[in-house]
């Protein structure tokens, strides 16, 4: 059997539930994720570099919804912590490594979605 050396991260169970199986809606949400996530990553890096914690928090907050739609519970919790750190301006020294983790996961999830988007919505 051909397994990837990286486990799949995406789980569309929740998205299928809230869409009542509307494949058009699911494809639309996937399209939005594929379009907006790279922009969000650029903005995370920009706001971190500029130490603009308010704007960083706003980008993180928007990303959380997408992560919940795609079953990325661990990343949702990570983003939740990052949102708190940027809002309260605490543990700011942890943010660069956390943003690197988010970038890595986003890169993998984008590849998964691009490779799978027409294959029966990834079952």
The whole-angstrom Rg is 15 Å
Give the CA-based shape. Answer: elongated
Mean pLDDT: 88
Output the CATH class name: Mainly Alpha
Beta-strand proportion? under 5%
Q: Total helix count?
A: 5
Parts with pLDDT < 50 across at least 5 consecutive residues: 1-6
Please tell me the total number of domains.
Answer: 1
Percent of residues in helical segments? Answer: over 70%
Q: How far apart are the first and last residues' alpha carbons, in Å?
A: 18 Å
Per CATH, the architecture is Up-down Bundle
Order of helices and strands: HHHHH
CATH domain fold name: Four Helix Bundle (Hemerythrin (Met), subunit A)
Number of strands: 0
Query: From the helix content, strand content and strand pairing, which structural class follows?
Result: mainly alpha
Largest β sheet strand count, sense and barrel closure: none
Name the CATH homologous superfamily.
HPT domain
Could you describe the 3D structure shown?
The chain has 123 residues and is mostly helical. It has helices at residues 13-18, 23-49, 53-69, 73-88, 95-116. It has one domain: Four Helix Bundle (Hemerythrin (Met), subunit A). It has 5 helices and no strands.
Output the keywords:
72% helix; Four Helix Bundle (Hemerythrin (Met), subunit A); disordered N terminus; mainly alpha; 123 residues; 5 helices; 0% strand
In short:
The protein has 123 residues and is mainly α.
Helix/strand layout:
Layout: H1 13-18, H2 23-49, H3 53-69, H4 73-88, H5 95-116
Helix pairs in contact: 2-3, 2-5, 3-4, 4-5
